[in-house]
Design a protein that fits this description.
The complex is a heterodimer of chains A (174) and B (250).
Chain A (H helix, E strand, L loop, with lengths): L29 E8 L9 E7 L33 E5 L5 E6 L6 E8 L6 E6 L4 H5 L2 H4 L5 E4 L2 E3 L2 E2 L9 E2 L2
Chain B lengths: L6 H14 L28 E2 L37 E9 L10 E6 L24 E5 L5 E7 L4 E3 L5 E3 L2 E6 L8 E6 L18 H5 L4 E2 L10 E4 L2 E2 L4 H8 L1
The chains are: A mainly beta (174), B alpha+beta (250).
Chain lengths: 174, 250
C-alpha cells in the first residue's frame, strides 16, 4: 500500500504534543542537552525532538506510560518514574534549547527524530556515545556531528544543525 | 527591500516544481519546497546517509498503553463544561502498515484549530474568536483492527504569513506511531473539495497528485450520526522498512 505523505508539524503543536518533563526519562543518569539551529545559524524555537533508546542493558522493550493521565481530570501526569519507557519528547524553548535526562543506552547511541515548522518531513539522527562501524564509515568531519561533547562527567552537549557548514548527519533507513 | 510575495508568485513557484517533478512517484514531500518559505533555511543540503542495520534501534519503537489516554480524549466536544461551536464531525479510519496489516494498540494524537480557524496558542494572534469550550487536542489508541475514531468540530481555514493573502485549507494534524521508530508519521488530514487546495504550499509540497489525494479524507454518509455529526473517513498507511527487514532476517 502507498504510504500517507508527511506534512509539517507546524508552529502550533505546543498545546498538544509536549509532555510535562518529557525529556526526563530517568534520574541519576546522564544529561544530554543542546540547541537546534537553522541554516542562518539562528536557533529554532519551534522544533520538537523525540528520543528513542535502549536501556543500560541494551533492551529496546520500553514501557508504556510516558503520557500517563490522571483518571479524574484526564490531565497529563507524565511518567510514573518506575518503568523505563525509552521514549522522550521535548519541544525546543525560545532559545532553541532542549535537554534530556536519561540512562546511558546499552547499545551506545540514542535515536533522535526532529520535527519543526518548515520541516515537511521529519529527520532522523543519532547521538553516539561509543564508536561503531557506521560512525566509523563516515568522513570524520561528518561523523563528528553525531558525537556529543562531554562538558563534565555525565553531561553531554549535542547541537543539531538543520543546514549549514556544521549540518548534522541525518539518516535514511530505506 | 524585496516586495512581499503574492499568491501569484507562490502559484508560479508551485507550478514550476510540479512541472519539474511531473511523472515522478514521490510519496513524501521534499524538505526543500521553497514555496513554503519556512522550509528554506530548515532543510538539510547534504544527502541523507543510508543506514541499513538489522540491529538498528529504530526498528523497534516506543509503546503506549491505556494509562496514556483519558476517556474523553477521543471526543474533543466533551472536554469542557459547554458545547463547542461549529459543525460536529466524526473522523474514523484505520492505521495500516505498507503490507496492509493493522497497526494495533498504537497512539494516535490530533490537534486542530477551532471552527473559526483559531488555535489556543499564544502565537496564533489572528483575529478570530477563541472557543472556551474547545481545545482542539485529542488522542486514542488504535484497536485490534487498527481503527481510530474521534468526535470533534470541523476546523476553519485560517490565514498565515507565508505570503500576502495566504490561507491554509481546513485540516487536522495527526501524529501516529507504528511498531518501529522508522514508521513515525506526522501529517495533516484535509477535507474533500476544499477550494483552498490549489493555493496552499504545504499541501502542494507533495508533488505527486495521487499522493496528495491520500491526504484528503472522504465524506462517508454511513459514518454520519443522525441528528449529531457528519462523518469523514481517512485511512493512514505508515511508511518504513521495519517489518520487511525483520522478516528477511528470520
Amino acid at each position: 500500500m502507498n504510504p500517507t505523505p508527511s506534512q509539517t508539524v507546524g508552529p502550533f503543536y505546543g498545546y498538544a504534543l509536549p509532555i510535562p518533563r518529557g525529556g526526563d526519562l530517568a534520574e541519576g543518569g546522564i544529561v544530554v542537552h543542546g540547541h537546534v539551529y537553522d541554516g542562518a545559524g539562528e536557533p529554532v524555537p519551534d522544533a520538537l525532538l523525540e528520543f528513542w533508546q535502549a536501556d543500560p542493558s541494551g533492551s529496546l522493550a520500553g514501557a508504556p506510560g510516558t503520557l500517563r493521565r490522571d483518571q479524574v481530570s484526564g490531565a497529563l501526569l507524565g511518567r510514573s518514574g518506575v518503568g523505563f519507557t525509552g521514549f522522550g519528547r521535548v519541544a525546543t524553548d525560545a532559545d532553541g534549547g532542549w535537554a534530556l535526562r536519561t540512562l546511558p543506552p546499552g547499545n551506545g547511541y540514542i535515536s533522535v527524530c526532529v520535527f519543526a515548522r518548515g520541516l515537511l518531513h521529519h529527520l532522523y539522527t543519532r547521538i553516539y556515545f561509543v564508536p561503531d562501524a557506521f560512525l566509523g564509515s563516515l568522513p570524520p568531519e561528518r561523523g563528528r556531528t553525531l558525537v556529543p561533547v562531554e562538558e563534565r562527567a555525565g553531561v553531554y552537549r549535542f547541537d543539531i544543525h538543520l543546514q549549514g557548514d556544521e549540518e548534522t548527519v541525518f539518516l535514511d533507513f530505506g | 527591500m524585496t516586495p512581499p510575495l503574492t499568491q501569484a508568485d507562490i502559484d508560479r513557484e508551485i507550478a514550476e516544481v510540479h512541472q519539474a517533478r511531473a511523472g515522478e512517484r514521490a510519496n513524501h514531500p521534499d524538505r526543500d519546497f521553497a514555496p513554503y518559505r519556512s522550509s528554506v533555511l530548515r532543510h538539510p543540503k547534504q544527502p541523507l546517509v543510508a543506514l541499513k542495520d538489522p540491529e538498528a534501534a529504530e526498528l523497534a519503537g516506543p509503546v503506549f498503553g491505556v494509562a496514556d489516554v483519558a476517556p474523553f480524549d477521543a471526543d474533543l466536544t466533551r472536554q469542557h463544561a459547554g458545547e463547542p461551536l461549529g459543525e460536529r464531525i466524526t473522523v474514523q479510519g484505520r492505521v495500516l502498515d505498507r503490507d496492509g496489516r493493522p497497526v494495533r494498540g498504537q497512539l494516535v494524537e490530533i490537534w486542530q484549530a477551532n471552527a473559526s480557524g483559531r488555535y489556543p496558542h499564544q502565537r496564533d494572534d489572528h483575529p478570530a474568536p477563541l472557543d472556551p469550550n474547545f481545545s482542539g487536542v485529542g488522542r486514542c489508541l488504535t484497536d485490534d483492527e487498527g481503527r481510530y475514531a474521534f468526535t470533534t468540530i470541523k476546523p476553519g481555514a485560517y490565514p498565515w504569513r507565508n505570503h500576502v493573502n495566504a490561507w491554509r485549507p481546513a485540516h487536522i494534524h495527526f501524529s501516529v506511531f507504528g511498531t518501529a521508530f522508522t514508521q513515525r508519521l506526522v501529517t495533516q488530514m484535509y477535507f474533500p473539495n476544499d477550494p483552498l487546495f490549489p493555493y496552499d504550499p504545504v499541501l502542494n509540497s507533495v508533488t505527486d497528485e495521487r499522493a496528495r489525494q491520500r491526504l484528503v479524507s472522504a465524506y462517508d454518509h454511513d459514518l454520519s450520526v443522525p441528528e449529531w455529526s457528519l462523518g469523514y473517513r481517512w485511512d493512514i498507511v505508515l511508511d518504513g522498512p521495519a517489518a520487511t527487514w525483520m522478516e528477511e532476517g528470520r
